Amino acid sequence: MSYTVVDFISLLGSVCLFLYGMKVMSEGLQKVAGDRLRNILGAMTRNRITGVLTGITITALIQSSSASTVMVVSFVNAGLMSLEQSMAVIFGANVGTTATTWIISAFSFEVSISDYSILLLAIGVPMLFMKKSGYKSFGEFLIGFCFLFMGLDLISKYVPNLQENPEMLAFLANYTNLGVGSVLIFFTIGIIVTMVAQSSAATFAITLIMCSQGWISFALGCAIILGGNIGTTITPVLASLSGNLAAKRTAMGHVLFNVLGSLIVLCLFHPFCELVADITQACDGINPLQISQAQEAGMRDTTLFTEKGGMTARAQSCIAFGLAMFPTVFNACNLLVMIWFTKLYVKIVCWIMPTRHKDEEEEFTLKYIGRGILSASELNITQAQKEIVLYGKRVDRMLGMARQLIHTDPKDDKYTEIYSRLEKYEEISDRMEIEIGSYLNKVAEGRLSPEGKMRVAGMLRVISEIESIADGCFNVAKTLQRKVQNHVEFAQPVMHEIDQMYDMVTDAMKNMLGLLEDMETPESSKVVAAYNKEREINNLRNKLRDGNIFNINNKEYGYQEGIFFMDLIGEAEKLGDYMLNVVEGVKHQFKPVLN
Known about the structure:
By secondary structure, the chain is mainly α. It has 2 domains: 5-352, no CATH class; 366-594, Up-down Bundle (Methane Monooxygenase Hydroxylase, Chain G, domain 1). Helices cover 79% and strands 0% of the residues. Helix 11 packs antiparallel against helix 17 and helix 23 runs antiparallel to helix 24 (524-553).
């Protein structure tokens, strides 16, 4: 019976059904778990061991190492996890992903799960119409589970039978009998297939079918799986492209971990395959390497081969068991070796991707409060205080960028660059407020003196006002963007008045930062200066507002120009208000000192 084009298209459709099932099943599991997975990931990474266990558990639950590593990349990008913590989770994720291979292996030949697929669909589809999102998500999981194994069953049905198509066997013989060359060829195929499918599970399923049908030997199947271990890193790499330097380093760390491990095993390929085969024989009673050798030699053991020369279900089960064992042993060995060199590994990654000054500024990292709550609550306040000073300095840079944007030609590429940086800084500012605020709330739950409680309350107000300053700086950028879109330009006298206003705001910012840096021993003179500067800003705002009305009436410039001018002046006045509020927050912490 010849293999037709229709059969080949049906095979492609079967692979697509398998991939779609894997996607739906994984997404359903992630929705069922919800934010709990993210909370676990954020909380359980304080040391290497818990990080590894977290990576194993989460990846095994959501059936996707790509999903868990992308999640890790996003956490690092958000500054919620350090590079060292992320490496431990990724090491664990590589082991956790083998759970998928075991599921596919277990249900492929010994249990015909496709026989129960319609029954599971009958349960899963009605769940999609339920009101509770949890039931809907679980219904998605069941449907994905069914599609996955229906696809796997169809793949095995439409894969060409080599006994009936000897020309294919002759074609494969050109590539399967080249010794080390064959291993490298199929290793490369594993990389490419996994990169295209973005799923190591899909590569495993295809390899499983090819080995069980006698297309390739067990050893070459292992070579494909080993290549898939490198190919699977493409997903987090793509996810990191839009992230910061820390996110890119995390993705690079994942690539290096998998590449180094794969290359080491590739150098010891045949001894490693024999080790896996021996473990499989000890567990399952049959050596998968010997099955391949017997098939190549033309031996026809009735326990292993059918009358037509195909493998029996028992032999196929052994091959499946061995193929699942290979990535498990490989990733476990890789983990056991690399886990002890995590810090060195991080240094190597940082050396490969060095920090530029601009990158360092634009990363969201908490320098002083990233190690959890200390046992002495009063010391935690000092840590938060240092972090708030850094927060204020970061927002001060935003004010400088906003002023720079005012004087930058919108047609210049630098204008877009500054605007994008301001937008990024504003997002970082939002996250910093949340993280510092959450930290202070935890501190407040501890045993604090009345003075300590007062300081925490003042700090919470301070971070809220600093975040408002960041919002105000970005509002300046958005006002300028609207001005550009409306083709409005300011004359030189107007620009001079804007500079006058923002010079005062800059002075107020410097005074505020000086007070933040001396928060333990605030000077009353700086508090008085803050009130004076706010008064000066308000007076200048009133003067410029009256002058704006006069200029519009005398047609010095148009009404639209006047609107944008006052929008910028109004934002500057609000910035002055927020800065005074920060000063009052500091004053609230130390009433006895300043009164």
